């Protein structure tokens, strides 16, 4: 299975980098994992709605350019579908069974994801109704994907 995580902006905080490196290393025993960063647009305070749409659109174009045409796309969105870890594992397992070998998870920038990205997504995944910073979301996602593979393999994991 090929997993790509497409994100907006560079990861700055060292503590997040370390966590992501650790889970990426663990996950690489189960899948080929690639984290793709696309440049973010500056988003100062007091932007008009039109400016915000334009920023999301520009970031969206960069994201879509990185999505493989065969990929099953899972967009992370607060208003998406909430799953248990077991359901995410089952989802990944089913995709593999049906011959989908590429999954692309997409995390938006500070303003969220453009409509065009949501249209390309095969499903959207919510981690709760709360808003997480996109850099922290990356760490949470990579841990949950690692956990999902452990569940699929029937291997022990901390509850
Ligand atoms: C700072 S948030 C964007 C907030 C923006 N106001 C919105 O409503 O999308 C950046 C990105 O992190 C991800 N994200 C943040 N919280 C999330 C959650 N609870 N569930 C799923 N994804 C989340 C989404 O991909 C989002 O585009």
TrEMBL record:
The protein's enzyme class: transferase
A Pfam short name: SPOUT_MTase
Alphabetized Gene3D superfamilies for the sequence: 3.40.1280.10
Keywords attached to this entry: Cytoplasm, Methyltransferase, rRNA processing, S-adenosyl-L-methionine, Transferase
Record: residues binding S-adenosyl-L-methionine: 76, 108, 127-132
The EC number(s) this enzyme carries: 2.1.1.177
Entry keyword annotation includes Transmembrane: no
UniProt-listed InterPro entries: Alpha/beta_knot_MTases (IPR029028), RlmH-like (IPR003742), tRNA_m1G_MTases_N (IPR029026)
One GO cellular component term: cytoplasm
Molecular-function annotations in GO: rRNA (pseudouridine-N3-)-methyltransferase activity
Intracellular or extracellular location(s): Cytoplasm
Reaction catalyzed: pseudouridine(1915) in 23S rRNA + S-adenosyl-L-methionine = N(3)-methylpseudouridine(1915) in 23S rRNA + S-adenosyl-L-homocysteine + H(+)
Chief location category: cytoplasm
Function in brief: Specifically methylates the pseudouridine at position 1915 (m3Psi1915) in 23S rRNA.
Complex formation: Homodimer.
Family classification: Belongs to the RNA methyltransferase RlmH family.
UniProt protein name: Ribosomal RNA large subunit methyltransferase H
Organism listed in the record: Halalkalibacter nanhaiisediminis
Lineage: Bacteria, Bacillati, Bacillota, Bacilli, Bacillales
């Amino acid at each position: 299975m090929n997993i790509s995580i497409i994100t907006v902006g560079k990861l700055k905080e060292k503590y997040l980098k370390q966590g992501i490196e650790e889970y990426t290393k663990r996950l690489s025993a189960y899948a080929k994992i690639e984290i793709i960063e696309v440049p973010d647009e500056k988003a100062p305070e007091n932007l008009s709605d039109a400016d915000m749409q334009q920023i999301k659109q520009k970031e969206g174009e960069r994201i879509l350019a990185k999505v493989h045409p065969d990929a099953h796309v899972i967009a992370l969105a607060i208003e998406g579908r909430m799953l248990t870890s077991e359901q995410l594992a089952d989802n990944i397992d089913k995709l593999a069974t049906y011959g989908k070998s590429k999954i692309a998870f997409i995390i938006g920038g500070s303003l969220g994801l453009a409509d065009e990205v949501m249209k390309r997504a095969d499903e959207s995944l919510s981690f709760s109704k709360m808003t997480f910073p996109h850099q922290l979301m990356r760490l949470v996602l990579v841990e949950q994907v690692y956990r999902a593979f452990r569940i699929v393999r029937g291997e022990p994991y901390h509850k």
